[in-house]
Amino acid sequence: MKDLRRYLVLKYIQYLVLSSSNAISTSLGLLGSLYTLIILQSAKVSSKSTAVLISSLAKADILVSVSVVSEMVVWTFDVSISSTAFTSALLQNLLTANTHLSCLLLSCVAFEAYLITFFPTESRRLRTVKNARLACRIIWILVTAECALFQADDLLKVSSTSAPTRSPCVLLFRFCSTAAALLRSLSYFLGILLRTVNVYIYYKIFFSMSNR
Fold it and tell me: Model-level pTM?
């Protein structure tokens, strides 16, 4: 459990403290996620809702691995890509999806810690493995849909220059562009809100444990 707590601290710093990721935090995050996935396979770790959330958090770094490996392959072997704009947008959207997944899952862990600290008995029915898996599934579906919308918007931006002004593609481009812009704004404010809520939760937990 100490290693899992250290992993959570690392992820909180990476996604909710640092304004942007860098090579050091990304490398440490990937190594921590790999180590955490190995730990969670051990029989010593009980199957609880927190373990389910942490497992999903570690698996979210697969998106970062795909992006990093793809860039390394292109750079090392000088691979020529037919659609550079599409691939670049896809890799960036995968990193964005990873960030949003991690922030939401970390917030779920924080919320569960709040319930355990202040409502241990009342929240027992809510803090189940089934509900944790359901929450993870919903988060993955929402973020996947967001990533698909961003990718469609980036793809249509490239293809719209050659499309007729009255073609259906233009209407689709305007819809995706508007929806993507609204979603980016919403995700920005949601990120600020999640940071504030997480700080408040751990502030309450810290002082509650100190008083005890």
Answer: 0.88
